[in-house]
Amino acid sequence: MNLPSVHSFTSVFYTYMGEPYAALLSGMVLGVDVPQSLDIYAYFKRTGLLHLVVLSGSNINFLVATCMRVCLVLGTRLSAIVSITVVVLFILFVGPEPPVVRAGLMAGSTLIAVVFNRQSIALATLLTTAVCIGVIKTDWLATISFQLSFGASLGIILWSPAATTKKAVQGNRLLHYIKDDMRTTLAAQVVTTPLIMYYFREISLIAPLSNLAVSFVTGPIMILGIVTLILGKLHYWLGYIPAKLAVVCLYYVCEVTRIMSSLPHVFIKF
């Protein structure tokens, strides 16, 4: 059985929205490259947000978290098995790109640990994943996309705070959310920033702030995008509402990046 082409689904987005929203949503949900001719590409580059429109570990992790929540009524083990199946199908669907496979293997290892009631250590899982990819596809280790994806995961594992407990956030949930989100963003950039400077000879000084400003809508955008794809394939009007809600969120992201990219001295090229 042949899975449908990714590009056969991008037309669904374009029936509901124009550029740059359709291109951004295609990049976030399906991994389709955003045309560099669009102004929004330059805005995202200057603000350090290009990673949002490149299919990577965040997409896989979001997919796993969603599957686990939706299938939790089946029990932890069954929901993990369903999630593993969905991850495999998703990787086959979008194509076995290095960052996607890395994230898929890492998520799969963690889910298998859940099935067998074994504690999974994030760092060990990440390193094991890199070894597996190195054995299967040695040349992938040298790709920039894989190194950036691996570096972001490594930074988050080493320096990101653990999930805030319910008791800890009773005082001010919003403040704790902002602090944790900011620390997670900075943790990822500790490793990725030197790599970006080395490979691209450029750096966005405003990246931590811009990431914080849009991170809270990234999840809803992906949910709405996936729902739009599924319902829109069935009937135009079924996908209309989630598509328009996605446009609202995408408009916010575009405006934030446009305003922040216009600030002076936020982008250094050397």
> Helical percent range?
55-70%
Instruction: Report the strand count.
Output: 2
Radius of gyration from CA coordinates: 19 Å
Strand order of the largest sheet: 1-2
Question: Termini distance?
Answer: 49 Å
Low-confidence stretches: 163-169
| Sheet with most strands | 2 strands, antiparallel
Shape: globular
Mean pLDDT: 80
Number of helices: 11
Polypeptide structure, described:
- This protein has 270 residues and is an all-alpha fold.
- The protein contains 11 helices and 2 strands.
- The protein has helices at 7-16, 21-30, 39-46, 57-70, 76-94, 98-115, 122-136, 144-159, 173-200, 207-234, 240-261; strands spanning 202-204, 267-269.
- The protein has a two-stranded antiparallel sheet.
- The chain is globular and about 55 Å long.
- The N and C termini lie far apart (49 Å).
List keywords for this structure.
single chain, mainly alpha, 2% strand, two-stranded antiparallel sheet, 2 domains, 270 residues
Q: Briefly, what is this?
A:
The chain has 270 residues and is mostly helical. It has eleven helices and two strands, in the order αααααααααβααβ.
Helices and strands in order:
Blueprint: H1 7-16, H2 21-30, H3 39-46, H4 57-70, H5 76-94, H6 98-115, H7 122-136, H8 144-159, H9 173-200, E1 202-204, H10 207-234, H11 240-261, E2 267-269
Antiparallel strand pairs: 1-2
Helix pairs in contact: 1-2, 1-10, 2-10, 3-11, 4-5, 4-6, 5-6, 6-7, 6-8, 7-8, 8-9, 9-10, 10-11
